[in-house]
Design a protein that fits this description.
The chain has 19 helices and four strands. It is mainly α and 557 residues long. Strands 1-2 form a two-stranded antiparallel ribbon. Strands 3-4 form a two-stranded antiparallel ribbon. A hairpin with a 5-residue loop joins β1 and β2. The protein is globular.
């Protein structure tokens, strides 16, 4: 039964990804399409009101527009969070957010990470939830989509990289907003609250008084998953029955968060006029997803031997930290998809995963290219594709090419720096935290699991994921500053590097295909691509995993 559940959901992922890919290809076309008649009048109104010029940009202009718009959003969000107690839209009288926590929160949602060092229902006013959190949940995935499409245009030799503001507005109006409205309505029909009324005060059967938090939950939940955001309205996130009431909403949320990431590699194939190329990228990501899903599912299904030694039944698997209404199968699938798509939403507590079960979310965030978030994950797998082509070219003594464009020194330097930055901003802060009291005092479970708690926090921040081993006491100055900086570095350095690579490749003339051209749309390249990703990932991260979850698993035996 478990395998049937999982298989049906994954089949739906494939069936929905294909039409979504075709739709995205049309949405981001540089030519006039039939969709312009439906959405064009709204977009032109936005351009006119905001003074946006729709002319094509080079890569430097594109990067500048991306950074400037994100800086303005950060400043506005920080100010609202700092003074939310004095602003309207606060019927529950939530206090102003602390300065360092406000920095961390603004950085978190600006970078599409949504790491939460606060509890949503008690830490944010309704105004902050809507004007900061939900607003950034639209604009940050739209930023990732815009970057991804610009990168696609550079690799596939389109007319230009496009215009950042046009791509941003199209992402919101033509993709994220319609999908979020649809999913919101479905969630409301299943009992997810959508109200601006204050916290409800009720009398229990025992005669005690209980406060029940509520708010515009459905609106946040829909874009939280569609935009691969992950931040919950409630502290328990999608394990809370108001966010995720039943098995149907659980599947809906899984499909919502994987839909766009799964469609983007196929979109690349359509834009490159090579469907095989798109399916090769999709297959590489899909195979890694299946492998990690199996690791998580079978580890949790086999149970926790330490709990069994205490006399607790493990016949149904390790149910610690999981919701009975979801069980092992839907919990494992949710855990795998949320870290594959770097969403960060959770329907079970990752801190209670078995040691080997936790390797799955660790591994996908460390590789950061198993579908990934809206836009960024596909950019990362393409980055590894170019690296694989470069390595293959060196092996045969030929100048490497990708889609007819020569890969030369500048592109490889930028890609190498982007690949190296990811482990640096995970491992260096983790080492600092483990060797200072500022970091170790947050650990709730000393020993190997405590090491895992710290590494997971920085891995989640660097991968713009946002989920956490929630046993970590992370609302401190050290954690708010360190993870805030990691999130910003993890997001923007690679973005700028990749848009520069896209601009460089766009300027190059296409090289004619010959007998010696290395094919990138066949099974041979699929094997080379997977080998490149996994070898680099293993060499970089296996030692630190050996100190955390693997060492903890060995002590279990």
């Amino acid at each position: 039964m478990d395998f049937l559940q999982i298989s049906v959901v994954l089949l739906f992922v494939i069936l929905l990804a294909i039409p979504m890919a075709k739709y995205l290809t049309t949405v981001f076309s540089l030519e006039t399409t039939r969709h312009d008649r439906v959405f064009g009048w709204v977009e032109r109104g936005v351009y006119k009101l905001s003074g946006i010029k729709t002319n094509d940009m080079n890569w430097k202009q594109y990067a500048q527009a991306l950074l400037l718009s994100n800086l303005v959003m950060f400043i506005i969000s920080y100010v609202i969070l700092r003074f939310q107690g004095l602003l309207p839209g606060n019927p529950s009288e939530i206090a102003n957010m602390d300065s360092l926590l406000a920095f961390n929160t603004a950085a978190s949602f600006l970078t599409n990470t949504n790491l939460q060092h606060y509890s949503g229902e008690s830490g944010l006013s309704y105004l902050s939830q809507m004007v900061v959190i939900i607003f950034l949940m639209f604009t940050t995935p739209a930023t990732g989509l815009a970057l991804c499409i610009a990168f696609f245009r550079g690799l596939t030799g389109q007319r230009s990289l496009g215009n950042f503001y046009v791509d941003l507005i199209r992402s919101i109006i033509r993709v994220l907003l319609p999908l979020s409205v649809l999913v919101s309505l479905i969630l409301v029909s299943q009992g997810v609250p959508q109200t601006l009324d204050p916290t409800a005060v009720v009398t229990t059967l025992e005669g005690a008084t209980q406060n029940i938090a509520r708010g515009p939950v459905a609106a946040l939940e829909s874009i939280k998953h569609i935009g691969t955001n992950g931040g919950g309205f409630f502290g328990a996130n999608s394990a809370h029955p108001f966010e995720n009431p039943n098995a149907f909403t659980n599947v809906l949320e899984i499909l919502s968060m994987i839909l766009i990431p799964a469609a983007l590699p196929l979109t690349f194939g359509y834009m490159a006029k090579s469907r095989k190329q798109g399916w090769i990228l999709f297959s590489a990501m899909g195979l890694m997803l299946l492998a990690f899903l199996c690791v998580n599912y079978f580890s949790e299904q086999n149970g926790n031997p330490q709990l069994e030694a205490l006399g607790l039944s493990q016949e149904s698997g390790s149910m610690e930290g999981k919701e009975v209404r979801f069980g092992i199968a839907q919990s494992a699938l949710f855990t795998t998809v949320t870290t594959a798509a770097t969403t960060g939403t959770v329907n079970n507590m990752h801190d209670t995963l078995t040691p080997l079960g936790s390797i799955a979310p660790f591994g996908m965030m460390m590789l950061n290219c198993v579908f990934g978030g809206d836009g960024v994950g596909t950019v990362n797998i393409l980055m590894y594709s170019i690296l694989a082509v470069f390595i293959a070219g060196l092996m045969v003594g030929r100048t490497p090419e990708f889609l007819g464009k020569k890969i030369e020194g500048m592109e490889m330097k930028l890609i190498a720096m982007a690949i190296l930055l990811h482990p640096i901003i995970i491992l260096v802060p983790s080492a600092l935290a483990l060797t200072t009291q500022m970091g170790t005092e947050a650990i709730s479970n000393p020993g190997f699991h405590g090491i895992s708690q710290i590494i997971y926090e920085f891995t989640s921040s660097a991968a713009n994921n946002g989920s956490g081993f929630e046993g970590l006491g992370d609302n401190t100055p050290f954690w708010n500053i360190s993870t805030g900086l990691v999130m910003l570095f993890g997001r923007y350095f690679s973005m700028i590097a990749m848009i520069a690579v896209g601009g460089s490749l766009l300027a190059k003339k296409r090289v004619p295909e010959t007998m010696g051209t290395f094919k990138t749309d066949n099974s041979t390249f699929l094997v080379i691509l997977l080998s490149t990703v996994l070898i680099i990932g293993a060499l970089t991260f296996f030692p630190v995993l050996a100190l955390g979850p693997i060492a903890e698993w060995l002590t279990f035996r």
